[in-house]
Amino acid sequence: MMYVEYIERDRTMPVEIFRFLGNQESAWSEESVDRLVLQLGRTMRLGPHPSYLALWQIPDLRRLDEWEEYFHSPAAGQNRRSQAMHRAINIQRAGVYDVLAEQQPQVHSLFVIEYYQPRGVSTEEALATLQKRARKHSEISIVYILMRVGVLGPEPSLLAIWNGSSYIAFEQLFRDEECAGLKLETCGVYRKWGDEIL
Fold it and tell me: Is 87 buried (19+), middle (13-18) or exposed (0-12) by CB count in 10 A?
């Protein structure tokens, strides 16, 4: 399961401070079972707002109960790193997603997220369509296919996260809007946190 934070930067804060305090690479609490799998920033202004995403792999929804318990505890108030981070970043929205497919990202630092709205297709059909799309564009790879749990998150409900070496490697994907049964709402281009071009 994936918990995705949709983050925006307060433009009054210098970007260097935002990047430093907002970087969640360090564990936010001791012995955490959560794993930060991607922290991305929209690059070259290509894509929707919010401009940043953090993807946390969590075991199940029980983890949200544990987070609430932690954030109501004295330990959370004493965690200066966590306090500073929450003052530095504006988490506008979050969503919870089932992971339909995943594979390790390549060493490439360029990511594309396609935001789909399934129209009368099952989860299995959506997955099969995106896997077919991945075979068609073999020069890049799908890292994650995520389906929102119910309405627990923003529209659209289906995310395909791709990884590739360059814009030119993605060109055919950018030009290919055909995806049977799935409505491609928009896409965004991202780099790892701190490497994005504002």
Answer: exposed
Owner of token pair 């202004």:
45
pLDDT of residue 88: 84
- What is the rounded CA–CA span in Å between residue 152 and residue 98? 11
Q: Which residues contact 81 (CB under 8 A, 6 or more apart)?
A: 26, 28
Residue 69 DSSP symbol: H
Of 8 and 81, the one with more pLDDT: 8
List alpha helices for the chain, DSSP H.
15-22, 62-71, 74-78, 80-88, 123-136, 167-175
Quote the strand ranges of the chain, DSSP E.
Answer: 2-8, 35-42, 52-57, 90-102, 110-118, 141-148, 158-164, 182-192
- The reported pTM is 0.94
Encoded amino acid at 175, one letter = R
Instruction: Write the pLDDT tens digit of every residue in 120-160.
Output: 899 999 999 999 999 999 999 999 999 999 999 999 999 99
CA dihedral for 20, 25, 31, 32, sign (positive or negative): positive
